[in-house]
Specification:
The chain contains three helices and four strands. It is α+β, with helices and mostly antiparallel strands. The protein has a single domain, classed as Gcn5-related N-acetyltransferase (GNAT) (Aminopeptidase, 3-Layer(aba) Sandwich), CATH 3.40.630. The N and C termini lie far apart (45 Å). The C terminus is likely disordered.
């Protein structure tokens, strides 16, 4: 059981095209169990979907204590930011990373009108 009194250092770095295979690995390892249980995993179909939508959003790599641990993907829309996906590699799950690490997240800001 992890020691909850010790906090991991969580930060983000921008993802770039050199991270494509890392992002694919994160997607596969984090989502495959749920997809397999629901529809069955079709590697070719999943890879094609990943490639077709790779540039549809802003992606950042989640780092834990300096190690690449996962990714977060958002779509910046004119009136809001849509969280498309957040995924962690299995060895970083259940450690509070996604719960406790988001106060520092800063996305490109645009002037917004809130109603």
């Amino acid at each position: 059981m992890p020691d909850k009194s010790v906090r991991d250092v969580v930060d983000l770095r921008p993802a770039d095209d050199q991270d494509r295979e890392l992002l694919w690995l994160i997607q596969c390892q984090s989502l495959r169990p749920a997809v397999e249980a629901t529809w069955g995993w079709n590697e070719a179909l999943q890879r094609r979907h990943f490639e077709e939508h790779y540039h549809d959003c802003v992606r950042q790599i989640i780092r834990v204590d300096g190690a690449d641990a996962g990714m977060v993907a958002v779509e910046v829309r004119p009136d809001h930011v849509f969280l498309r996906n957040i995924a962690l590699l299995p060895q970083f799950q259940a450690r509070g990373v996604s719960t406790n690490g988001w106060a520092f997240v800063r996305w490109p800001r645009r002037p917004r009108t809130f109603r």
